[in-house]
Write a structure and sequence with these properties.
Helices cover 66% and strands 0% of the residues. The chain has 384 residues and is mainly alpha-helical.
Length: 384
C-alpha cells in the first residue's frame, strides 16, 4: 500500500483520459469533481507524517516515468478536440485502434467543455508533469532521470526551471533576488509574470557562465536552454500536426497556464519569508504541509524544508518537519485559494506570518520582515 499511494496521480491521468473521451460535459464534470476531491481531501483526510522506508526504488520512480506518455496523450487529445480539422489518416488510425468515432466525440463537445479541457490539461501538466520533472532534474548524476525530468518540463516550455531552480533558487531562497520568493502582500498575478521573466534571465545567465568556464560555445547543444526549448518545439510540432494552427495555440495556452500554476505554487511555498544574505538556508525558510492529498499528488514536495535542507534527497526520503512553519491547508488547496481568492489567501496568511516573525525569525530577519510588513499595503501587517 505504501508504494501504491504514489500511483494515484498516474491513475488520475488514466481516468482523465477515459472520462474526456466520453464526450459532451464529461471534461467539465471531471475537472469540477477532481478539484473538489483535492480541496475536500486536503481538509478532511488524515495528515501524512510518516517517515517510511522503501526497498525498491524502481516502483517509486515508475509512476513519474509513466506520467510523460500519459500526459502527452491527454494534451494531444485536447489539441485534437479543440484544434482544426485533423488529418484523415490520423482520424482513421485513431478510430481503428480505439474502436471509436473520434470526430463524433469532437463535435459533441460544447464551448464550456473546451474551457474545462484546457483547464484540466493545464492543471495535470502542472501536477503530474512539472512536479515529477522538478524531482528528476535534481538528480544531476543520473542522466536518464535528468532527461525524463526535462521532457516533463518541456510540456510547459519550462527548461529555465531545470536550470534556475536547481542552481539559483536553492542558493537564493528568501532573498530579494530570488525569483521564486514572494513578498508579503505581493499580487499573485504580477508575481507570475515577474517570476517567469526573472527565471529566464537567471537561467540564461547561469548557462552563459557555465559554458564560458567550460570553454564551450554559448550557441551550441551544450546549452541546456537551447536543448530544452528544442524539446518543447518538438512537442509543439506534434500539436500542430494533430490540431493545426488552433491545436498549436491550444497547446501553447495549456503550457502557459501550467507554467503559471507552478509560479503560484512557488508563490505559496515561501510567501513572505525572508533570509539574511550569507546565512544558511534553514527549515524555517519554507512553508510546509503534511496534508495527505497534496503530499501524494505532489510527490512530497510539501515537505519543503527537508527538500531545501538536502535537495539531493529523493521524494520518498524527505522528512516531515512537524515543528517547521506550516500552511493552513495543503499546497493544492492553497493554490486554488491564491488563484481565485487572493485577498482571502493573504488574510489567512497574516497570522502565520506574524507567528513566523515571533517564533521562527532571527533578530536580523525580523528587521527584514518589518520592512516587508510596512511595504505590504496590508493593514493587519502594518506597524507590527
Amino acid at each position: 500500500m505504501k508504494y501504491l499511494k504514489y500511483y494515484i496521480s498516474t491513475l488520475t491521468l488514466l481516468l482523465a483520459i477515459y472520462t474526456c473521451s466520453l464526450g459532451a460535459f464529461f471534461p467539465t464534470a471531471f475537472f469540477i469533481l477532481f478539484s473538489s476531491f483535492i480541496i475536500l481531501g486536503d481538509m478532511f483526510f488524515r495528515e501524512d507524517t510518516k517517515k517510511q522506508v522503501y526497498n525498491n526504488e524502481f516502483f517509486l520512480n515508475l509512476p513519474m516515468y509513466i506520467n510523460f506518455p500519459l500526459l502527452l496523450f491527454l494534451v494531444m487529445m485536447t489539441v485534437f478536440f479543440l484544434g482544426d480539422t485533423p488529418p484523415n489518416g490520423l482520424v482513421k488510425s485513431v478510430n481503428q485502434f480505439f474502436s471509436i468515432d473520434i470526430l463524433t466525440i469532437k463535435n459533441s463537445l460544447h464551448f464550456v467543455d473546451g474551457i474545462f479541457l484546457i483547464a484540466l490539461s493545464s492543471l495535470l501538466i502542472g501536477i503530474m508533469g512539472t512536479v515529477p520533472g522538478h524531482e528528476l532534474v535534481h538528480r544531476k548524476k543520473n542522466k536518464f532521470d535528468m532527461q525524463m525530468g526535462n521532457w516533463l518540463l518541456a510540456l510547459s516550455w519550462d527548461c529555465a526551471f531545470a536550470v534556475e531552480h536547481v542552481y539559483g533558487h536553492h542558493k537564493n531562497v528568501g532573498l530579494d533576488k530570488d525569483p521564486a520568493t514572494a513578498k508579503r502582500g505581493e499580487n499573485v498575478y504580477a508575481f507570475i509574470f515577474k517570476a517567469i521573466k526573472n527565471e529566464q534571465i537567471g537561467a540564461w545567465s547561469i548557462e552563459r557562465t557555465r559554458l564560458k568556464m567550460n570553454n564551450s560555445s554559448f550557441f551550441s547543444f551544450k546549452n541546456r536552454m537551447i536543448t530544452g526549448y528544442l524539446r518543447s518545439i518538438i512537442i509543439s510540432g506534434i500539436a500542430y500536426y494533430v490540431g493545426g494552427f488552433f491545436g498549436l495555440l491550444t497547446f501553447l495556452l495549456c503550457s502557459f497556464i501550467a507554467k503559471s500554476l507552478l509560479e503560484v505554487i512557488n508563490f505559496t511555498e515561501h510567501y513572505g519569508l525572508v533570509r539574511v544574505e550569507g546565512q544558511p538556508v534553514m527549515p524555517h525558510h519554507s512553508w510546509n504541509t503534511n496534508s495527505f492529498i497534496s503530499s501524494i499528488y505532489l510527490y512530497n514536495v510539501t515537505r519543503h524544508s527537508s527538500h531545501h535542507e538536502k535537495a539531493h534527497l529523493k521524494y520518498w526520503e524527505l522528512r516531515p518537519y512537524l515543528d517547521a512553519p506550516t500552511m493552513p491547508q495543503g499546497y493544492l488547496s492553497m493554490l486554488y485559494l491564491a488563484i481565485f481568492l487572493p485577498g482571502i489567501f493573504k488574510k489567512i496568511m497574516v497570522d502565520k506570518l506574524l507567528d513566523w516573525d515571533e517564533n521562527y525569525a532571527t533578530d536580523d530577519e525580523r528587521k527584514l520582515s518589518a520592512i516587508q510588513n510596512d511595504n505590504s499595503n496590508m493593514p493587519l501587517l502594518l506597524n507590527r
